[in-house]
Amino acid sequence: MIQLNNIDKVYATNTIETTALKAINLHVEKGEFVSVMGPSGCGKSTLLNIIGLLDSATNGEVLIDGQSVQKYGDIKLAKLRNQKIGFVFQSFHLINDLSVLDNVEIPLLYRRMSGAERKRKALAALEKVGLKARTKHFPNQLSGGQRQRVAIARAIVGEPELILADEPTGNLDSVMGAEIMDILMRLNKEENTTIVMVTHDEHLAKQTQRIIRLFDGSQVG
Question: Fewer CB within 10 A of the terminal residue: the chain, N end or C end?
Fold first, then answer.
């Protein structure tokens, strides 16, 4: 489903160049659950952003479902992200002024869909993460674990084939982290959702099918 060929990422200013990724070659099959590990600053989030089409590589080629995205314009990339990819972040990125239900509906606002259909899909997504009873609450009325479950519901509401999770348990205690991991494992096994997860937690990484390790922007091991 994902193919990266000789990916480099360099951030340049007038005075310095910083290499974030070097010669990354990566294949992720449909239905895989893959974790990405490495020390802080090794390029994990940069790799996830390139896979998620939020950033572009300096060199190399990215293919999604066998199609190269190198020449896609911003509109086509945005449409591909909205239809195929769900994002889960460490810091939740919920909008505090919106209810749980409205937060989950956000990705569907960019699709041709009635309000009733958006609500139906959002309720179904919240039911999958065990929060259907919290639709009228606001993020600041929820625990960290509940907010991350809302974020997962938002990620899956559009039925994406791929979920990219950047330290999804990083702001949670071990019990809440295990609950979030259980939800991701269930999505992978029951719905064949492909998941790429960045984590510092070796215990969580070992529950996935494969571990990709980065060090100083390069694949190791």
Answer: C
